Amino acid sequence: MKELVETIAKALVDNPDKVQATETEKDKTIVVNLKVDPADMGKVIGRSGRIAKSIRTVVTAAATKVDKHVVVEIDS
């Protein structure tokens, strides 16, 4: 899931080299922390959080194949 989030985020931002994603797993839950450059934060979140919601939707759909629950957290 980490690779999926990184790929999506790198396509959206101006500084793809500063995109970092970390993944931690607890039982059936995967937590993906996405860190981007503060200047790119608006591009990842989007107007009213639409892009962030879309990223979460895509990752959740991918996680159903492996029977896991995924939480995506976005940090600057």
Structure description:
- With 76 residues, this protein is an alpha+beta fold.
- The protein has a single domain (2-75), classed as GMP Synthetase, Chain A, domain 3.
- The protein has 3 helices and 3 strands; from the N terminus they run αββααβ.
- It has helices at 2-12, 41-45, 50-63; strands at 20-26, 29-35, 69-75.
- A 3-stranded mixed β-sheet has the order 1-2-3.
- A hairpin with a 2-residue loop joins β1 and β2 (29-35).
- The mean pLDDT is 94.
Largest sheet: 3 strands, mixed
- Beta-strand level of the residues, as a percent range? 25-35%
Mean pLDDT over the residues: 94
Any idea what the CATH architecture is?
A: 2-Layer Sandwich
Name of the level-1 CATH class: Alpha Beta
Fourth-tier CATH superfamily name: K homology (KH) domain
From N to C, what is the helix and strand string? HEEHHE
- Total strands: the figure is 3
Structural category: alpha+beta
Number of domains: 1
Structural features:
76 residues; alpha+beta; GMP Synthetase, Chain A, domain 3; 3 helices
Outline of this structure?
This protein has 76 residues and is an alpha+beta fold. 39% of the residues lie in helices and 28% in strands.
Helices and strands in order:
Elements: H1 2-12, E1 20-26, E2 29-35, H2 41-45, H3 50-63, E3 69-75
